[in-house]
Amino acid sequence: MDCKFVKRSFFQRVFGVSETKKPTVANCWEYEDGKLVINLHEASELRTPGGAIRFEGGNLPVRVLVVCGEGGEYRAYRNQCTHFGHRRLDPVPGTNTVQCCSINKSTFDSSGNTIFGPAPHSIHCYPVEKDQEKLIVLISE
Ligand code: FES
User: How far is CA 37 from CA 24, 41, 76, 80, 119, in A?
Assistant: First the structure.
């Protein structure tokens, strides 16, 4: 499989600066009882294919990357590369892959399987349900 790469500078990769940001509207999500619930009305970054947000901090037990895929479907991943740097991930534009922001660019297919780079294991995918304007990510650590 041909692998595309997210455009990042050398220094961004060395320091592991991910392209994907936290939500613009900070309180567009909440976490309780294993469910990350995102208000899509406020999470505008997720309304167009290729959009993504990283969720972390607060009472969320793991970092989560949520992506609106090229076909408009939603996917969620544990936002932690399985290579030893455990850096964050970004969606690769025009593909349904996600990629580590580090210098080694480990890349994973839509199911989380490693397709490029040194990451020794797949990344964890979380089930996603859509309920009108709410996106519910079922978190299992
Ligand atoms: S931490 Fe992801 S490739 Fe090294």
Answer: 16, 12, 12, 20, 29
